[in-house]
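fyi for ur records
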Amino acid sequence: MLKNNSNKNNKDINSCKKKYCDIGGQAVIEGVMMRSRNFWALSVRRPDKTISTNIYPAQPISTRHKFLGWPFIRGTVSLVESLSIGFKALSYSVNEATDEDIKFSKKEMAISIIIAVIFTVGIFFVAPTLIGRSFQAYIHNSFLYNLLEGIIRILFFLVYIFIVSLLKDIRRLFQYHGAEHKTIAAFENNEELIPEKIRKYSTLHMRCGTNFLLIVMVVAIFVFAVLGKPPIYWRIISRIVLIPVIAGISYELIKIAGRFADNKFIYILFYPGLLLQKITTRQPDDEQIEVAVESFKKVLEAENSKRT
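which gave:
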C-alpha cells in the first residue's frame, strides 16, 4: 500500500523524476482510472458510498515489439491502447456506479471503438475539409487555405466541448477529471496523498488528454499544409491516412511539455491547452479526490510490487 510518505514513493517509482511521473488517468462514471506503464487501476464510488477498486495488467505492446516504442511510432500505439483501456474502464465503471451487471463482449467493445473513431474522424477531419472546400476559389495560398481549414477544425472541437460541458452528468465527470489532475500534481510535488493536501493543487495539467487533442489540431495544420491543395478526394484520404503521423508528432510534443512544464517558454506555448482544461475539468469535492487517490495508490502499489 502507498503510505503517507510521498518522498519514499517517488523514489520507488523509477519512471518518476523530479516533478514528472509517467502515470496518467481518465475520469469515468463516478470514478477515476489511473494507468502506469504496466498496470491500470479503476476506482469507482458505489451507490452505497463505498469505493470499489480493482487493478488490471496493461503491458504495452512495445515491450514485445520494440520498434513500436520508437519515437513518432509510439504515439499512435499509445493512442490505440488508451482507447481500448478507456472503453473498458468506462464499461466497468457503469457496472460499479449503478450496481448492475452490464457486460460487453469483445466484439461489442470493438464495434463501439470503431464507431467512436469514425465519428471523431468524420466530425473533426473530414467535415472541416468539405467546408473548407467552399473557400478554395478565394484562397490561393496553400498554407493559408490549410490554416483556415485548421481553424474550422478547432472551432468544431471547441463547440463540441462546450456543448457536452453543459450536460449535468458530464459536469460531474469533469469533476472527477479535476480530481485526477490534482492527485497526480500532488504526487509530482512530493505531497502527502490526502484530500486536505491535494485540494490546493490546480485542476489543470500539462499532460492532459485535452491538451493532446488541441495539439493534434494545431499539428494537423502544418502537416496538411505540406500537401498543398490536392483534389478533394485526395484531400479527404490524406486527412484520414495521416492521422497516425499527426498523433505520433503530437505525442512527442506532449511528452516534452510534461517533462519541461516549468520552462516558461514551454508553458506559454502550451498555455491554450491549459485554458481549454478550464472547461473539461471542474473543482472536485473531497469524496471525488478520495476516489482518485485510491486508484492512484493501487497502481502505484502494483508498480512497486513489480520492482521488488
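The longest helix spans residues 106-133. thats all i got for now
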